[in-house]
Write a structure and sequence with these properties.
This protein is α+β, with helices and mostly antiparallel strands. 38% of the residues lie in helices and 15% in strands. It folds into 2 domains: 218 residues, 3-Layer(aba) Sandwich (Glutaredoxin), CATH 3.40.30; 136 residues, 3-Layer(aba) Sandwich (NADH Oxidase), CATH 3.40.109.
Length: 388
């Protein structure tokens, strides 16, 4: 019974956190005044748990350098002193602030825990029974990604913590002082940096989020769940124009684009798909149509005799990034194309697109208002090498 109650409590906690956003939390300043994080809306945030007697304390100077460089562009660094790791943040609130000011010239705000209505501020707890709700949320959004074991410090941290717990890397807990969370202007927790990560990597992340174009690129995800709401015609026009303004070799523009707004047409061809894939459709309780349930689709065609694929890919990327900037979701689809070309009963759909005889359907972009916010999957940076 006790175990069941604990499981239910954990589920409630997860559901509560998933319903919250970064701006729903509040903390305190050094005087004990409540500080709602909502006041930082529109800023890029770097949230850090710090300590004044840690091997990583020198990072204060690097953080201050980032603050000076990027603050006027919209960066805020929120410093949360924490005494949970080796008791390396001793002293009062006033003593900690004095140490940081005198030794590192820190100007970014130091913030603390404390209950609403209480005058006192206390050092934040990021793990354990008294974890501050803000940190419970941050950890739910970005788990532990591992230390850099290609560095001596990273190897040392991994060895030390693995001696204490051989499976320490399997949970999202904060592992040490100077763990950093990067928050986008719209409140998404986009990245977690461990204390052994290079500050140059942190700076790249900050610069990316401060730049609206780069931030849009990094935020775009493939969406596979959509609201039952068609995209407005004007927005679809905008997407098409962004697409055909992509570069192409010798400006040949070797593409044909068809934007499908006819929901009955989508429903009719989906019925053909449903009959041909009855078992698969039955397993998907959320199935609405064969285009990932999107209310609209954009069909991209290239020359039937080959060529134009690279240019068409640039067109599609323009469309998907423009959609991201407009609050829309997209997913590039190949499976439906194969079905449409192979199933004679679906021929009416191809005919309706009025594709010229010397062109072929290459891929389809599902587009609509997203009903999910997929997390980024890990990217393998080792695939990139710089030849100097």
């Amino acid at each position: 019974m006790k175990r069941t109650l604990l499981c239910l409590s954990a589920i409630v906690c997860v559901l509560t956190l998933s319903a919250q956003g970064i701006y729903d939390f509040q903390v305190k300043d050094k005087s004990g005044t409540d500080v709602p994080l909502a006041q930082f809306k529109g800023k890029v945030l770097l949230i850090v748990n710090t300590a004044t007697r840690c091997g990583f304390t020198r990072q204060y100077s690097e953080l201050e350098a980032l603050y000076e460089k990027y603050h006027d562009e919209g960066l805020e660094i929120l410093d949360f002193p924490c005494n949970q790791f080796g008791q390396q943040a001793p002293g009062t609130v006033e003593e900690i602030q004095q140490f940081c000011t005198l030794n590192y010239g820190v100007r970014f705000p130091q913030l603390y825990a404390g209950r609403t209505g209480e005058a006192a501020s206390t050092k934040i707890e990021v793990n354990g029974d008294n974890t501050h709700p803000l940190y419970a949320y941050l950890k739910s959004q970005q788990g532990f990604g591992g230390f850099r074991t290609d560095s001596d410090m990273g190897k040392a941290m991994d060895t030390m913590l693995r001696r204490q717990d051989s499976a320490y890397d399997k949970n999202p807990d904060i592992k040490w002082n100077f763990t950093k969370f990067l928050i986008a202007r719209d409140g998404r927790v986009v990245r977690r940096y461990e204390p052994t990560d290079d500050m140059s990597d942190v700076e790249v992340g900050i610069g990316t989020e401060l730049n609206p174009v780069l931030s849009n690129i990094m935020a775009r995800r493939s969406v596979r769940r959509y609201l039952d709401k068609p995209v407005e015609h004007e927005k679809l026009q905008t997407l098409a124009m962004c697409g055909i303004n992509a570069p192409s070799g010798m400006n040949r523009q070797p593409w044909i684009v068809r934007v499908v707004e006819d929901r009955k047409l989508i429903a009719d061809v989906t019925e053909v798909y449903r009959q041909a894939n009855a078992e698969q459709v039955a397993r998907d309780s959320n199935f609405k149509n064969m285009f990932r349930n999107a209310p609209n689709i954009i069909c991209v065609c290239t020359p039937a005799n080959g060529g134009g694929e690279l240019d068409a890919g640039l067109l599609g990327e323009n469309i998907m990034l423009a959609a991201q900037a407009m609050g829309l979701g997209t997913c590039c689809l190949g499976g439906p194309v194969r079905f449409l070309l192979a199933n004679e009963k679906a021929r009416f759909f191809i005919d309706k697109l009025e594709i010229p005889a010397d062109y072929k359907l290459n891929y389809i972009i599902a587009v609509g208002y997203p009903d999910e916010q997929p997390q980024a999957k890990p990217r393998d940076a080792s695939r990139v090498k710089f030849i100097k």
